[in-house]
Design goal:
By secondary structure, the protein is of the alpha/beta class. It folds into 2 domains: 159 residues, Rossmann fold (3-Layer(aba) Sandwich); 66 residues. Helices cover 43% and strands 11% of the residues. Strands 2-3-4-1-5 form a 5-stranded parallel sheet. Helix 4 links the parallel strand 3 and strand 4. Helix 6 crosses helix 7 and helix 6 packs across helix 8. It is elongated, with a radius of gyration of 20 Å. 35% of the residues are buried.
């Protein structure tokens, strides 16, 4: 198993985020079912194959990495695979059916040569305890892949990461600010909420960039300093 992990890590380490954590992801009210499913995956011995879709920036890659990083999974054999990075010139998936958890990202950007390998991997894992988690900007019905591969993907438990509603943007900002221990006032956070994009990745990244800006400029988090930040900021 160690040899398998070492060999494949050369191909699969692209996009790996070793700091991602489920505790640091903002699950909106409409995403509570997904949250419960992921928790069940972590703590249950029952095999689960899951397909997650959502718009760019909704947090799909973050969630995959969070699953891999969870303390319940770090002692198990698991791996992250960005399908968009594989050109199909090698047999990448040999013996991966021995793993406990395989997270496959960006299947909507998969190389045509990789479709058969992915289809075969699903079949090889079918009668094992291996959990497969796919992520995509598109749902299975929207993919332009081999019909047999799409059929296999449609058999998985499907979840869509719902966008953060306008009424939850401020809650998400407060969540991120609290996690970063920034101590922004309610007025400042409400000011930010009217100027920020409505997806988790953008909110998290913007708050982090704002923190860096305030530190470099030696400014306190006020409406004036935040306004100055947004004037020159491109998310």
């Amino acid at each position: 198993m160690e040899n398998i992990t070492t060999r494949n890590q050369l191909y699969f380490d692209f996009g790996r985020d070793y700091d991602a954590s489920l505790e640091n992801f903002f699950f909106s009210n409409k995403n509570q079912v997904l949250k419960n499913e992921l928790k069940e995956l972590i703590h249950s011995e029952q095999k689960k194959d899951i397909f997650i879709s959502g718009i760019y920036g909704s947090g799909k890659t973050f969630l995959l990495n969070s699953l891999l990083n969870h303390k319940e999974n770090t002692s198990k054999s698991n791996i992250y695979i960005d399908l968009a990075k594989l050109d199909g010139t090698k047999d990448y998936f040999t013996d991966l059916n021995q793993f406990d958890l395989i997270c496959l990202d960006n299947i909507d950007k998969i190389n045509k040569e990789m479709e058969i390998q992915t289809f075969n991997l699903i079949n090889e894992c079918k009668d094992t305890s291996t959990n497969l988690i796919f992520a995509s900007n598109l749902n299975p019905s929207q993919l332009s892949c081999l019909p047999d591969l799409i059929s296999r993907l449609k058999q998985m438990n499907y979840f869509y990461i719902n966008e953060i509603g306008d009424e939850e943007v401020l809650d998400c900002i407060k969540f991120v600010v609290n996690k970063l221990d920034l101590g922004f006032s309610d007025d400042v956070m409400e000011f930010i909420s009217k100027r920020i994009r409505r997806d988790f990745y953008s909110i998290k990244t913007t708050i982090q960039d704002l923190e860096k800006f305030l530190y470099s400029e030696k400014k306190e988090p006020t409406k004036k300093s935040v306004s100055s930040f947004f004037k020159g900021y491109k998310a």
